[in-house]
Design goal:
This protein is of the alpha+beta class. The chain is 71% helix and 7% strand. The strands form two sheets. It has a seven-stranded mixed sheet. A two-stranded antiparallel ribbon has the order 5-6. α27 links the parallel β7 and β8. α15 packs antiparallel against α16. The longest helix is centred in the middle third of the chain and has 50 residues. It starts with a helix and ends in a 9-residue tail after the last strand. 33% of the residues are buried.
């Protein structure tokens, strides 16, 4: 009898626990399902703003009309509408380069938005600040502020605001080459557009499809890009927007055709596009670029005479439009054609003149590419010494760009952290504003919460063991995930090899500990890798890099390190390497890479060769104060480039220092080949096997 009563009591207790849990769960669900109501707005004013957008006004005229509208807003106009009007005015100031007025007004807008408490208002104000930063050209600052847009946008209810926010964030990510994140926010923006049905809807839908197509093109997913362009074109035709969007669609189609090596199709599209835009004031600024691309196609297909005529026409238009950068590119291409035609001095003088003209004017990453093409032209004319000097300059500039980008990334991460911290502070302020009201609710619910607290405490005592075990499993999983993350940070994602960062850390450690003895370094570069990408596509290029990595690992010992140094370059660090055996190892390395073609998934077999530089480390018994690992790497980098300008498919090794380092340093830094000829150092050249791969 007592047992039955005990069972009934226990059943009653468990039922109470279940009911309490159900009540708590229902309250949580109700809170989670609470939606943010759209903020109040003035429909007539909102329609006026929509009409301004649809009328394609100039920025100056738009600013005048918005300012007049702001001056006539009636008292009591809802905050959301006021903030939209003021934001448009701040943007107009920004487009006219009056950023002092723009930011003064924006400070007022942000205060009003925070005071209103509407997520849409806060989102619009934050997005306006990011847009102004982009208009100033301060992309890094804009990038550091995007969290202030993303956080409130998650709670925004107006499709227009969500489209503005996510489209803007996507454009920042695209400029930072974070295409995956950009695509994510373009999809969010597209979802917002699909909730609207206004005159702006098809325009926004087309714009988003063009940006998505651009991302697919950058990722060499040309079929997906063409699909987006086809859908955009259908929307253009069904809404009569050909004048607004057709030229950009055609330009993207021509670019894709060029990248897919459909040169005839690209010719046809560019010629049709040039005919469409030459008399159209809206698109005439694109004409010299289109003609330059036609000239580039002529070079690719060896139609040099027609290329000259096209580029000269492009040059005249670019000069008329004061398009300085386009003009410089065209003149450079005209010089390149002269080199192809055998007019070497004339062509190289023209190309060199452009190189000197833009030095210090163009951004480093673009100037570095120009140097590469100039070095190619020098090599075509047999001027290997000059080509080597240009390639060395290109290499130094590339390293400078890499270091600058690293510093910029650190700054961006710091700014992003501060942005997140500020976003959290904003949330805390919002919570503080609602604290008094919540305290009143808590007082009314005090008795209920007390009872629920007792029940939940009992429930926690029952579940304590389960939670402990779950927490322990979570900690173990987190520890494992952290270990995997640490490994990924020092691994190249494509090949699985150690990356540059891992090797730099290892060499710095050895430098501190003085633990490098009888080691060696080999720096290797796949020959004509750009041609492989251009001819067979980036997927085939990735297959080649992965197979070369596999062959390098197979030939090395377990305690050696194979590093993907960057792009098509690999660094092999040999521990306890016999200096006499090093040349035999490097020769076997060249043979292993070149003796068998590489089978790719999409382009069949591709024969390749490689060029390398190698050296013992420490070199010539020098200590770290005399020649550290960075200086040693620079020396074999010079040896590698000497091998490239003297025919590729070979390895140059620096084996002995014949004069004191103080006397040798200037010669080694300026011209390695001359240093070898003057017997400052002793070098050997090893030739790889004959290959049917890409030729000079």
């Amino acid at each position: 009898m007592q047992t039955t009563q005990a069972n009934k009591a226990l059943s009653s207790y468990l039922m109470q626990v279940v009911m309490a849990c159900a009540l708590v769960f229902a309250m949580a669900v109700a809170q989670a399902q609470e939606t943010v109501a759209p903020p109040p707005m003035a429909p007539a004013v909102e329609q006026q703003l929509d009409d301004m957008l649809n009328s394609n006004l100039s920025e100056a005229e738009m600013g005048k009309q918005v300012l007049a509208l702001l001056d006539t807003l009636p008292a009591g106009t809802p905050d959301m509408t006021q903030i939209r009007v003021k934001s448009y005015l701040a943007m107009s100031y920004g487009y006219e380069d009056d950023f002092t007025k723009a930011y003064d007004l924006l400070d007022e807008i942000e205060q009003q938005a925070l005071k209103s408490g509407f997520p849409d208002a806060i989102t619009e104000a934050a997005a306006t600040r990011v847009l102004l930063k982009t208009l100033e050209g301060k992309i890094t600052e804009a990038y550091s502020l995007i969290n202030a847009v993303i956080v409130p946008a998650e709670k925004a209810s107006l499709p227009r605001v969500r489209y503005f926010a996510h489209n803007l964030v996507a454009s920042i990510y695209m400029q930072k080459n974070l295409t995956e994140r950009a695509l994510e926010h373009l999809i969010y923006a597209s979802d917002a557009v699909n909730e609207t049905d206004s005159e702006r809807t098809p325009v926004r839908r087309i714009y988003l499809k063009l940006r998505i197509a651009e991302i697919y093109s950058q990722q060499t997913q040309y079929e997906q890009a063409l699909l987006q362009l086809n859908e955009a074109e259908d929307t253009v035709q069904s809404n009569g927007l050909e004048l607004t969007f057709a030229p950009e669609i055609q330009f993207q189609r021509a670019y894709i055709a060029t990248e897919m090596e459909n040169f005839d199709a690209a010719f046809d599209i560019y010629e049709e596009l040039e005919d469409q835009i030459k008399d159209d004031p809206q698109w005439v600024a694109m004409q010299p670029t289109v003609l330059n691309n036609l000239g580039d196609l002529a070079i690719r297909t060896k139609r040099f005479e027609s290329g000259i005529a096209t580029l000269e026409e492009a040059l005249a238009i670019a000069q008329q439009q004061n398009a300085t950068i386009t003009e410089q590119i065209i003149r450079f291409n005209l010089g390149f054609i002269q080199v192809h035609l055998g007019n070497h001095n004339r062509g190289l003088d023209a190309m060199k003149a452009i190189v000197e003209e833009v030095r210090g004017e163009w951004i480093s990453s673009e100037f570095e590419g120009l140097l590469g093409e100039y070095a190619q032209a020098l090599s075509m004319t047999g001027r290997y010494q000059e080509a080597n000097e240009v390639l060395l300059e290109q290499r130094e500039l590339r390293a400078e760009v890499f270091n600058t980008e690293m510093q910029k990334n650190v700054t961006e991460l710091q700014n992003l952290y501060e942005s997140k911290d500020k976003a959290q502070q904003i949330e805390l302020l919002e919570q503080q504003n609602g604290l008094n009201e919540q305290m009143l609710k808590n007082e009314r619910q005090h008795q209920l919460i007390l009872a629920l607290g007792i029940i939940v405490a009992l429930l926690f005592s029952i579940l304590a063991l389960y939670l402990y075990r779950a927490a322990r499993r979570s900690n173990l999983a987190l520890k494992d995930a952290n270990a995997k993350l640490a490994d990924q940070s020092v691994r190249d994602p494509l090949t699985g090899l150690l990356n540059r960062r891992a090797m730099q850390q290892e060499l710095q450690r050895q430098q501190r500990e003085g633990s490098a003895h009888n080691d060696a370094m080999v720096l290797l570069d796949i020959d004509h890798f750009k041609r492989i990408n251009d001819k067979h596509g980036h997927a085939a290029g990735d297959d080649v890099i992965c197979e070369v990595a596999r062959r390098l690992v197979a030939i090395c010992r377990e305690n050696d390190k194979v590093i993907r140094w960057g792009g098509e370059e690999f660094l092999i660090y040999l521990s306890n390497a016999d200096a006499d055996a090093l040349p035999r190892f490097v020769r076997r390395l060249l043979q292993t890479i070149a003796e068998q073609p590489i089978t790719t998934k999409c382009s069949g077999d591709i024969a390749i060769t490689a060029t390398a530089g190698f050296i013992s480390y420490p070199f010539a018994g020098l200590d770290e104060q005399q020649m550290d690992w960075e200086a040693t790497l620079q020396l074999i980098d010079n040896a590698l480039y000497a091998g490239k300008v003297h025919g590729r498919n070979q390895a140059w090794g620096i084996t002995r220092l014949n004069v004191p380092l103080d006397k040798a340093r200037a010669a080694l830094d300026s011209d390695l080949v001359e240093a070898i000829e003057q017997k400052v150092v002793t070098a050997i050249t090893l030739h790889g096997p004959k290959s049917e791969g890409l030729s000079d």
